[in-house]
Design goal:
16 strands, 16% strand, binds pyridoxal-5'-phosphate, alpha/beta, 460 residues, five-stranded antiparallel beta sheet, seven-stranded mixed beta sheet
């Protein structure tokens, strides 16, 4: 492989970045005080900046580098595919995408068999919404079932429709009006139960809200319910075990499709290959991205049951086919990278490691309860939230600026944790943890020690 010759005199990339790049979720005017860190390399669980300083990554990038960094076999698979066939539109077939679709059908199991490929999680959810709407039109003789039911505090993507399906007012208020036909029900947020109840006496009231919403809207107008098995960005909300089965049953009763968003929870994150596998439900559509390739290259996908797919069959010229396309969908290089990534996840049984190390970490994090700012600690596998409060009794959220300080202290100590930023107006006080699934107990201990130190600094 050749390396690129520098085109001219050396220019510090940080300077080019300062002058030319527009970063997400970043106030550029603050960068002169606190410049962004230039990350230059990574290996296993550790990311390095341009000075060689190491950071233990407890967020796997953005909840996505499940196989860990530095996996040469993913890079080599992508390289070989680039040499053989770098690209061809998916209006024709290519071998890696075909093999990947078959692999996903095996991993998902049950009736989920047919995969439509895209390039991100947002696009996967957009595609799922469009598939759901077109499905009903064709399955129910022209019936316009178009409404999508989502949940408060949820996040399903950055496009207008996925934002409309999400429940984060703080991320949407500037872009309204959003597309119509989206509504939301309360989230299974047990620590702050929207009904002021406590499990199990609550009877999982939040799950029953989904059916209430379907009935209130009129089932003949509702296309789908979209949800994550564990609501991640809100601060890792793990629902009671009955939640998903109750929702799935309501969907089935009213002919509403169930879209399960596995963009974060997929590929071993929660201790099973897919988050919904914990709950014994079979969705109609599953959306994926992030760890499908462990983020080595962008890729997303939506897998449908054969029943959903069959509604798109018809005579040539009938117009029943899926009326959508994206240039990069079914990309052969991304597919080759995904296959190499799935080889690693399966060979090393990283879902099981996530379960074991996740259970160890959750227990070790229990030590943090000694600090009064720690309100709740919850998680499944290596998907964990630590909710910070100003007052344990009233559960008043900690000032988000102080949660930022805790995350920043960890960063300065060389440990990267996340935060539930902008989940709702006034939110942003829950620390999130979602490391590569290759983590060992040593990394878990290192994280807990860093969090303990950062929390202690809150007292000064
Ligand atoms: N769905 C969930 C649950 C997510 O957390 C995200 C992003 O974090 C998305 C969808 C959107 O994925 P992307 O950023 O790849 O568009």
């Amino acid at each position: 492989m050749s390396t690129r010759e520098p085109a001219g005199p050396f220019v510090d990339p940080r300077e080019l970045d300062r002058q030319y790049v527009w970063h997400p979720m970043t106030q550029h005017s603050a960068l002169s005080q606190e410049p962004l860190v230039l990350m230059t390399s990574a290996e296993r669980h550790v990311v390095r900046d341009h000075t060689g300083r190491a950071y233990l990554d407890a967020m796997a990038g953005l909840w996505c580098v499940n196989a860990g960094y530095g996996r040469a076999e993913i890079a080599e698979a992508a390289y070989r595919q680039m040499i053989r066939l770098p690209y061809y539109p998916h209006t024709q077939a290519n071998a890696p995408a075909a093999e990947l679709a078959a692999r996903l059908a095996r991993l998902l199991g049950g009736r989920l068999r047919r995969t439509y490929f895209v390039s991100s999680g947002s696009e996967a959810n957009e595609a799922a919404f469009k598939i759901a709407r077109q499905y009903h039109l064709q399955r129910h003789g022209g019936q316009r079932r178009y409404k999508i039911v989502g949940r408060h505090h949820s996040y399903h993507g950055t496009t207008l429709a996925t934002l409309a399906a999400s429940g984060m007012a703080a991320r949407t208020e500037r872009f309204e009006p959003l597309p119509g036909g989206f509504l939301r029900v309360p989230a299974p947020y047990c620590y702050r139960c929207p009904f002021g109840l406590a499990y199990p006496k609550c009877g999982v009231a939040c799950a029953h809200q989904v059916e209430q919403a379907i009935l209130a809207e009129g089932p003949e107008t509702v296309a789908a319910v979209v949800l994550e098995p564990v609501q991640s960005a809100a601060g890792v909300l793990v629902p009671p075990k009955e939640y998903l089965p109750i929702v799935a049953e309501a969907c089935r009763r009213h002919g509403v499709l169930l879209i399960v968003d596995e963009v974060i929870t997929g590929f071993g994150r929660t201790g099973k290959m897919f988050g919904h596998h914990w709950y014994g439900v079979e969705p109609d559509l599953v959306t994926m991205a992030k760890a499908l390739t462990s983020a080595y290259v962008p890729m997303g996908a939506v897998t449908a049951t054969e029943e959903v797919f069959s509604a798109f069959l018809g005579e040539p010229g009938s117009g029943r086919e899926a009326v959508q396309i994206s240039t990069f969908g079914g990309h052969p290089v991304a597919s080759a990278a995904a296959l190499a990534n799935l080889d690693i996840l399966e060979r090393e049984d990283l879902a099981r490691n996530a379960l074991e190390v996740g259970a160890y970490l959750l227990e070790a994090l229990g030590r943090l309860r000694a600090h009064p700012a720690v309100g709740d600690i919850r998680g499944l596998g290596l998907l964990i939230g630590v909710e910070l409060v100003a007052d344990r009794e009233s559960r008043r959220p900690l000032d988000p600026a102080l949660a930022v300080q805790v995350a920043r202290d960890c960063f300065q100590a060389g440990v990267i944790v996340g935060r539930s930023a902008r989940t709702y107006v006034g939110g942003g006080h829950t620390l999130t943890i979602a490391p590569p699934l290759t983590w060992t107990r040593e990394e878990a201990d290192e994280l807990v020690a860093a969090l303990e130190r950062a929390l202690r600094r809150l007292d000064r």
